[in-house]
Amino acid sequence: MSSSTALLPKDRKKDDHPIFLRVCHSPWSGIGQKALVGLRGLAAAYMLASFALIINYELQHLKHDWLTIFEFSNVQYLLQVMYHVIAFTWTFMHLHYPHHGSQEQTFATQVQKFLSPPRQHATTKNRTWFSIFYSAANAFPFTSTLIHWAVMIPSKKTSIPADQIFNHGWHTTFFVLNKWGVSSLLSFIEVLFFSSIRCPEPVGAHVAGLGALSFIYVGWQYVGYIVSDKFAYFFFDHKQVGWEYVIASWFFFAIVNNISYFFVYGVTAVRQQLTKKGDGKKSGYQQLPQ
């Protein structure tokens, strides 16, 4: 067996590969295991470095202080960073240490097991929980980007006005374009090229899950208001827009997050069609490497 082809056992019940291992394989035949490990490593390193620069800009230049940890764009970015670090770690371990479970149990093999993709269990529903996490990590960037450019910029409620994004230092341009541009682009690349996770289902569980996360964030906003006396989004501030508009905004926020989920679902469906093997064509994997 080639060192660039890791083991990929099937879930025999559904005749499908576990979702945790689908993270570790690109559906495109041109992206092998070694290449995917390298690409995921670059993505994770970039996300970590850019997140540090973004938080530094928030604190040092914008003086947002405690408000920083309550901004949706930062919460979303942190979630995305976590996903890419996990995805890189699992992909690396799956390629280089796929047999740790069959070896003598030592401290080293225990560490390998901890860092490797978990087994999929029907009893714990860990597949569904991870799928919701995956969907949130890759859908929320689109929500954040949409709100910034379609709501905050036209309302002139941003810390950096549209006419100050460029020609005001590289850090300012980097800050805006990464938070509300590059993060969405990376999510698109993840769903279309890096991951072979199928359309995130069941749809009902994901809609409910992302809706619940949306309202958890709304609650987090109000914790932020208590701490910093500010709201990250003006439409959550009852003093600015009134309670009727605020309550409508709660539901609008949850709806937009689910629209972003369906966008990810649609991109995934397109990718699944593009990577199916046609008659004698090798556009991608119909069946992932074993």
Automatic annotation (TrEMBL):
CC per GO annotation: membrane
Protein name (record): Uncharacterized protein
Keywords: Membrane, Transmembrane, Transmembrane helix
Keyword Heme tagged: no
Highest taxon, organism lineage: Eukaryota
Alphabetical list of PANTHER family matching this protein: MYND-TYPE DOMAIN-CONTAINING PROTEIN, OS02G0130600 PROTEIN-RELATED
TM segment ranges: 37-57, 77-97, 129-153, 173-195, 207-227, 247-267
